[in-house]
Description:
By secondary structure, the protein is of the alpha+beta class. It has seven helices and 20 strands.
Amino acid sequence: xxxxxxxxxxxxxxDFYGLSVCVRSxxxxxxxxxxxxxxxxSASGDCRGMSVRIAPAAEASGLPGDAGRWRPQRGRGLVFHxxxxxxxxxxxxxxxxxxxxxxxxxxxxxxxxxxxxxxAHYAVLSRIGEELDVRGWHRVHALGFSLGDKGALALAxxxxxxxxxxxxxxxxxxLDILSDDTPLLGFDLTLRAFPLRLGFREGQDLADxxxxxxxxxRRLDYPPKRLVDIDFARGRIRPAAALRAIFIVASPxxxxxxxxxxxxxxxxxxxxxxxxxxSGVPQMAEYxxxxxxxxxxxxxxxxxxxxxTASRAVFAAPAFFLAPSRDPEECAQVIEAFLSRLS
Length: 343
């Protein structure tokens, strides 16, 4: 199967830095959406890794329905049933997901294409993210970018303008992108690319983005997002860069963008949130927080690895407060000039 056709027939193979994912969907449209989500990681060949199977809701009739209520997120109406090594999750009485911890297998039953896409999208990110954690590569909730081999992280909350700033960087043409939301950081302080589709609120100016590269991501509990395929950034994705600066981003304000030094304590506090705890990182509690078997030991080891990497980053890379203007183009220009002067 060629990478270009990957996903068109309901089959999709992905490779996340040696971690493979095999998606098999009875609805080719769902696989095609996932192909666009993860096009940077599209692969071909014999896939032997994590398995994701998507089928109609009617085929879930044999799954156990006896469960207690659990609502980790507003409005989801989640119901789960544990029978180690399996966890069954029911989403608002409209879809089922059964995860096998031992064999890394996801089985999704849904008739709604938007819901099937959302469940599969976040299941892949959550499970692959955990496996990357084990290997020492941690997702950081940040914009990752570089000027040449100088890599940087811009730590901002969800909705804090990371994708708008990434788009401005791409438009200017001098800064490269590693990810607009979750670049990878290793203990050796190398940043690695983890680019997904750029996500924007409705109303964002995307006049220079071809309509063929745009789509809408409809979610169960949150407003829809306008997505831009990562193909828009082809040739501008930096595979890896050394971490040279950490920016703690404030809310946009009137006036010019300013960059001022930050203390290590502020930087560590930010990294504890954005890396160690993983606020804003797709690591879905319904898949991750299971304390049966050897899960507690594995989760504790992941937490310690993240903390170790965050601590090293704070002492090795200078940190700065970034107070951006309301103009992302001007902000990108200031960051570019600042990085060029950074030794």
